Amino acid sequence: MDVRLHETQEMLKASARDFLAESCPTASVREARRNDEGFSRALWRTMAELGWMGLALPERAGGSDMAFLDLCLLVEELGHACVPSPFIDTIAGSALTLTTAGREEADRLAMSIAAGDSIVVPALHGARDKQGFESLPLLSRKKDAYSLEGTAMFVQFAPSANLILSAARSADAPERHYILVIPKDADGILCSPLTSMSDQRP
Question: For residue range 60-98, what is the model confidence (pLDDT) as tens digits?
Fold first, then answer.
């Protein structure tokens, strides 16, 4: 098995490293981490214009339909430059999940992510119950509306997102699980910052 990178992948790595060295030097990283959002919106928009957001997304969702490995190589360069960004959360954590749903609405949202217009962060970890087990928020239906009750933990960049991809379990049948897309400004949603050794924004 040939595990060497091919020419296109080498070009992707080199171009990403050169761009980030110029556009995101150490001083810019420190400045971005100090602002309220924890990342640069201007850099986010430029990354979208370069096609990075849609790199591994299918063409029907506005992507380039490149291999997941290509996305990993790009993430490696973002890590090399210490770029503070919701890129992994939004692209690998949410956009790729949405494109597996097989629904037009999900593809349209993924297309919005690829264009840099939406930041969607995954909320997949529930709070611990009294027995110490992780408990996802409960989803219940009342007439024609759905209600979600509970707490999601460690949602990176939640204050900066406009949508949240939330895992939930049915209140009527706890063995059934769901993935929901929720507006961050929906009634009842509260983002509480957590103090940690990291300077990211959970």
Answer: 999 999 999 999 999 999 999 999 999 999 999 999 999
pTM of the model: 0.86
Q: What share of the chain is helix, strand, coil (3-state, %, to 5)?
A: 40, 15, 45
Q: How far is CA 41 from CA 32, 36, 130, 162, in A?
A: 9, 11, 40, 13
Domains, in order of start, for the chain: 7-85 (1.10.540.10), 121-183 (no CATH)
> Distance from first CA to last CA of the chain, Å, rounded?
40
Burial (CB count within 10 angstroms: exposed 0-12, middle 13-18, buried 19+), residue 20: buried
| Residue 34 to residues 39, 63, 139, 172, 200, Cα–Cα distance (Å) | 8, 32, 36, 44, 10
- Read off the pLDDT of residues 2-26 as tens digits, 9 standing for 90 and up: 678 889 999 999 999 999 999 999 9
CB 112 within 8 A of CB 104: no
Separation between Cα atoms, residue 16 and residue 23, nearest integer Å: 10
Tell me whether residue 46 is exposed, middle or buried, using C-beta atoms within 10 angstroms of its C-beta: 0 to 12, 13 to 18, 19 or more.
middle
Which pair of structure tokens corresponds to residue 181?
């897309």
